[in-house]
């Protein structure tokens, strides 16, 4: 299949390579029911040493920086209660954790979740957490700018691959709330 963005040898519909995905991501792709057909979710294999954004775009195409999104896990605390959420913003921005995220989660303090919590709760590898297949009860905060991209590159749950997804599909994921200004320059 032709690859819509980036310098990859080939892209495979994720439905055709579920064994390449971690279980929660494979399950989410298998159960996909959004307005974007599941066969438009593409999987590309990458060198796991190049999974981090800077190395990834340097190798697979500088133009991918504007078309890549990062999904981070945030922990918010109020009293003895900890609330986990995921935030999806373009790679050219930073998540407004202590402003918009903190207010949206109604917590006193918010910060990036520790690696063991992020990976343990998602079943995904650190550095490749994706919004596809997150725990269903989590809020997923999506920056509106992500939806404006025809195609977006995100993690696949494993460092050896990425997903290429139409931007508008992220608004339909379980728990998704679209927020203007979630990503800050």
UniProtKB/TrEMBL annotation:
Segments forming domain YbaK/aminoacyl-tRNA synthetase-associated: 50-171
Coiled coil: none
Signal peptide span: none
Origin: domain of life: Bacteria
CDD domains the record matches: PA2301
Gene3D superfamilies, A to Z: YbaK/aminoacyl-tRNA synthetase-associated domain
Pfam family, one: tRNA_edit
Record protein name field: YbaK/EbsC family protein
């Amino acid at each position: 299949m032709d690859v819509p963005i980036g310098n990859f040898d080939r892209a495979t519909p994720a439905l055709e390579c579920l064994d390449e995905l971690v279980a929660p991501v494979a399950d989410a792709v298998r159960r996909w029911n959004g307005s974007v057909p599941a066969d438009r979710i593409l999987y590309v294999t990458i060198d796991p040493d190049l999974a981090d954004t800077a190395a990834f775009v340097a190798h697979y195409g500088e133009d991918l920086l504007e078309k890549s999104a990062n999904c981070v896990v945030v922990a918010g605390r109020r009293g003895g209660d900890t609330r986990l959420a995921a935030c999806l913003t373009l790679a050219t921005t930073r998540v407004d954790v202590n402003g918009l995220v903190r207010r949206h989660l109604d917590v006193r303090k918010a910060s990036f979740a520790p690696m063991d919590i992020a990976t343990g709760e998602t079943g995904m590898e650190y550095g490749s957490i994706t919004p596809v297949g997150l725990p269903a009860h989590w809020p997923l905060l999506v920056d509106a700018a992500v939806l404006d991209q025809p195609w977006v590159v995100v993690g696949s749950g494993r460092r050896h691959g990425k997903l290429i997804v139409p931007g508008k599909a992220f608004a339909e994921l379980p728990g998704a709330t679209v927020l203007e200004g979630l990503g800050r320059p």
